[in-house]
Amino acid sequence: MDSDTHGLDSLVEPKAAMDRIKAQIHALHVRCFAAYPDYDMWEIGVECAAVLVRLNELIDRCKVNDVVHVISDDPTADIEMERWADETGQRVLESRKEGNLMHFIVKKVK
Length: 110
What we know:
Layout: H1 14-28, E1 39-43, H2 48-61, E2 67-72, H3 77-88, E3 91-98, E4 101-107
Parallel strand pairs: 1-2
Antiparallel strand pairs: 2-4, 3-4
């Protein structure tokens, strides 16, 4: 067998490959965010006001451009995080709801 054709018989059509990749992403619970987090804050069962106090403490210790992934189950988290970003001048790069959890990607900008 010539080296140029080695493995070609195992190639699949793009649609089949995409379906296979999507299934793997779902099975492995892979998440892609706007930026890779330097820190994770799992704040389940914590009122958003307390989450923001903890986030402020962490942001104070972070370097500029560090990224924090905040996970909250507080139903007001999206509103509170937007208000927090406006007040602090920090940047929420992304927010996403998954089930009853909110995920925020926050970047320290100053």
